[in-house]
Amino acid sequence: MYDALHTRYAAFMPRVHRPLLVRVLGGIALLVVIVAGSSVLTRTAPADAGAKTTPPCKPCEGYATGQPLQTPNAVSSVNGMLNYTLTAGMSTFDLGGRTVRSEVYNGQFPGTTLVVNPGDKMNVLLRNRMKARYLPYGASSENPPPIYPGQPYAVYPQKLGNITNLHVHGMHVSPVAPSDDVLLKIPPGSQYQYRYQLPADHPAGLFWYHPHGHHYADMQVGEGQAGAIIVKGGLDDVPGIKGLVDRLMVFQNVTVRNGTVTSSQYLTPEHRLITINGQVQPRIDIRPGETQRWRLLNASYERFLKILPMDGARYWQLSSDANTFAHPKQIGEIWLAPGQRMEVLVQAGQNTGSFPLIQAYFNQRPTPYGKQPRVQVASLNVTGAAQTPQEIPANLLPARDLRGPEVKIAARHTIRFTQAPPRFFIDGAMFHDHGGMAGPTFVAGLNTVEEWKIANDSPEWHNFHLHVDDYQIVRKDGKELRGEPQWADSIAIPPGKTITIRIPFADYAGTFVFHCHVLVHEDHGMMAIMKVVDRGAPPLVVPETAP
User: Fold this and answer.
1) Contact, 410 vs 450, CB < 8 A?
2) What are the residues whose beta carbons fall under 8 Å from the beta carbon of 349, sequence distance 6 or more?
3) Using an 8 Å Cβ cutoff, are 515 and 302 in contact?
4) Phi and psi for 408 in degrees, rounded to 5?
5) Helix count and strand count (H, E) for the chain
6) Are the C-beta atoms of 54 and 29 separated by less than 8 Å?
7) Cα dist. 435→113, 170, 185, 288, 419 in Å?
8) 518: which DSSP letter?
9) How far apart are CA 515 and CA 260, in angstroms?
10) Other C-beta atoms lying within 10 Å of the C-beta of residue 542
């Protein structure tokens, strides 16, 4: 149940929706009164600051915890080619030592990691073997509301059909079929052969794949359909990073009932598991003084991850969404919104022992369904023969920068995120299905740079994601960002705040989308069409700064 029907939302809604809201809220007025005093403009509740203890993880009970971190299965390209088949369907698999049932890829949770090089061809056959009329427990497509406690109101249904497709999140490839066309519809019983040609200069780093069928992304990602993509190169060859223990961690968020993964919106966050590589509170082994490279992917459907500092280690961030920094940045916490990736160096201290990795409390929206609790997600086990801490490299790779006077801005736009739950809007319009009423459409010229201000005119956090082209963040709340350039393909925007970005629409004409990566928002309207048109502009050269 998306429990966002709250009186505070009325201030952010178009007036035309308020009569509907009043009718919907009639039966839950008491809940509104209870939660009306919650804060919507702070990242964490005051109670989180200085908290000394972490409550036990109740949904973790009955699962095997403290097991050594496992690495997801992987398949690599050979002679410039990767051929792989993904079958989405009902399977049983091991989740934290228990047998669990869900619709996943190839019976795996998470899916197999795809490893490629710049310039490779990646061919993925996607087979939809899901059932058209299947809904996970807690989802409802019926009117009136279902009788099961905790299931959604009828105003927030999940469509039947189990339509799917595939998105290679963050990759700079063509949006035209048979490449990264997320407007395709692949119904149950059918299949589609995707063919992705990576450019020779494709950025190295961590990406991921997941379903993107409109109305079904939240359900299917919530069931566990996600996997990592690693493009080799870049940091792999940097002295001080090359040769380190290299760990991939895929964070997912699920609720399990009677051995089956439920609807993503079935229960409030304190009932949901945060898994890493399909494990519950795994143990990450490291020697005193040792430095490891961690590749972190938030593959959850709506969980905002804020991993607090540990007594046993220090962090240096190397990249954001596969955009490598010019210099490592020491950080005190790991912050990943849904869909984001990060690479960090983790250096253990000299003290041995077990140190918990704690997910901080996070107030994503002012309702019980937005209260993401403080919980342990893993433990760092510092043990074994001590190492002399290595020097952290001072320089990494050249960084692109669109802030110079030579950069010509072709157009400027303001994009507004608003909502009237269960409806979510971009510039006052909802996305529907491509080919019909597609919702808002934006047009840009190929090989041009545009500046967009994204305004979150709502009472909850959103996460802006653009397909095909990464963007540079140049201002936050109107304040210029100085220093090293900051690039992303997904960025969290607090309630009532703005970010300003510059987008280089380079290399690929075609139609794709941008949206909120809180996937229930995307599925219920917060997505728009982006059309890039070739008007004969010369190839775009983005200035770089040396490290």
Assistant:
1) yes
2) 288, 289, 311, 312, 313, 314, 382
3) no
4) -95, 125
5) 4, 39
6) no
7) 33, 25, 11, 58, 24
8) S
9) 29
10) 14
Q: Is 205 helix (H, G, I), strand (E, B) or coil?
A: strand
Beta pairing class for 490-493 and 279-280: unpaired
With CA atoms as reference, report the closest residue to 287 among 368, 196, 390.
390
Other CB atoms within a 10 A radius of the CB of residue 471 amount to 29
Which pTM was predicted?
0.89
Strands 409-420 and 448-456: parallel
Segments in the chain below pLDDT 50: 1-51, 143-155
Placement of tokens 């919702």 in the chain: 439
Q: How far apart are CA 195 and CA 179, in angstroms?
A: 5
- What's the pLDDT tens digit per position in 133-146? 898 988 876 544 44
Amino acid at 541: V
Q: Are 282 and 64 in contact (CB under 8 A)?
A: no
Query: SS3 for 126-183, per residue?
Result: EEECCCCCCCCCCCCCCCCCCCCCCCCCCCCCCCCCCCECCEEECCCCCCCCCCCCCC
* Cα angle for residues 271, 275, 278 (degrees, 5° grid): 130
Q: How far apart are the first and last CA of the chain?
A: 48
What distance in Å separates the CA atoms of residue 146 and residue 156, rounded to the nearest whole number? 12
Query: Would you give the DSSP letter of residue 221?
Result: H
Q: Which residues have a Cβ under 8 Å from the Cβ of 132 and sit 6 or more positions away?
A: 160, 161, 162, 187, 188
What letter represents residue 542's amino acid?
V
Is 321:171 a contact under the CB 8 Å cutoff?
no
**What is the gyration radius of the CA atoms in the chain, in angstroms?**
22
**Nearest CA among 50, 63, 137, 77 for reference residue 102:** 137
**Can you give the pLDDT at residue 383?**
96
Using CB atoms within 10 A of its CB, is residue 244 exposed (0-12), middle (13-18) or buried (19+)? middle
Query: For residue 525, what is the DSSP state?
Result: T
State whether the Cα torsion 209-542-233-338 is positive or negative.
Answer: negative
Residue type, 532: V
| Beta-strand relationship, 113-116 and 227-231 | parallel
Write down the H helix ranges in 163-304: 217-223
Q: Give the 3-state DSSP-derived string for 439-508, with helices as H, strands as E and coil as C.
A: CCEEEEECCEEEEEEEEECCCCCEEEEECCCCEEEEEECCEECCCCCEEECEEEECCCCEEEEEEEECCC
Q: What is the pLDDT of residue 435?
A: 53
Provide CB contacts within 8 A for 58, sequence distance 6+. Answer: 270, 271
